[in-house]
Amino acid sequence: MNCTTRDDDQRPIVIAHRGASGYRPEHTLESYRLAIRQGADFIEPDLVATRDGVLVARHENEISGTTDVARHPEFASRRTTKVIDGRTQTGWFTEDFTLAELKTLRARERIPDVRPASARFDGRYEIPTFAEILRLAKAASRDGRAVGVYPETKLPTYFASEGRRIDGAPIGVSVGHKLVETLIAEGFTDPRRVYIQSFEVANLLELKRSVMPAAGVEFPLVQLFGDLDASGPYDFRSNASYGLDLAARYGGLADIVGGIDAATRYRALATQPALQWMRANYATGIGPRKGSLLPRGSAPQSHEGKPAAREEERGPAFLAHALEAGLLVHPYTLRADEALLTRNPDGIATPSVIDEAMQLFGLGVHGCFIDQPDLGVAARDRFLAIGGR
Predict the structure, then answer these.
(1) Where is this region: Disordered (predicted)?
(2) What are the helix and strand counts (H, E) for the chain?
(3) Best CATH choice for the domain 13-224 from the list 3.30.1330.10, 3.20.20.190, 3.40.50.1400, 3.30.450.40
């Protein structure tokens, strides 16, 4: 099996971010098919819920930017304004549509100004269900190759407890429960072929403590990190605002980070004690932003040589602590588009996304999320060819 980086396979993995989203409209079956053809080890669906409780792949539950819903007069009255994770948004939301209604929509490129070639495919593809994505991965797993899935539970607090449909009724859907139910229903239960990720903490703890044990399965869990200083897990803010027992919900983590409240940022979780607690209690890995790991010095200039190993280019303490704790590290998101390449404080961009990936591999990460999976595979091949692990 060649789709994982566990103890028995040290090759960095290539995770197709929303499929081959650099070439096709994101979160479509064609985007996932292309990613598989390009050699991705895992395909990543972000999961949100429909009105009838089916998980579908969209980056957010607001769909005006990634579908043609605004062109459907029959759904004009569904446009509304909601507060989601503390942010006011206006548009159309998946929880106000049945699956059958969503299937009448067609996907469109999210950033057409940056990716006009992808925008040529606007209007061709449906919104896929999580079950359809699993069936695609199963069908593509043959001749010794096993394609994995790397789903993210999107807005778990909103869907489970805070969110309401357009008619005012509570949504009341546990994305984590639905995710595990779907994996089991589709017979996709090999833990070597699944990672479950989330920016929130409570839903990962719930998966570890109750949902997966009750279902008789166990999948590796990955704690995503947003901007270390500008953001924090939304469930911290939500649970603190309702005066819930944070010690019961988060166990010893609250003590380790000096208390959890609405102002707690991801930086508090990036310490050695916090990362060690995560590893011991629920997390197999972490998913940090690439900018949290890449060196802050001058951008590398070599396209061929092994990534530099000068002291200032060995990565931050955050990465060292994660690796010391035995956590897998899968940073996001690498993108080949020139406007989206990493830039240093002087505004100099990394020469290419292949250089960016090789630099991360050289720092010791175990894989990365990338919009152009073929370039991620090329970077890994080049890294291994010059003596990388």
Answers:
(1) 291-312
(2) 15, 13
(3) 3.20.20.190
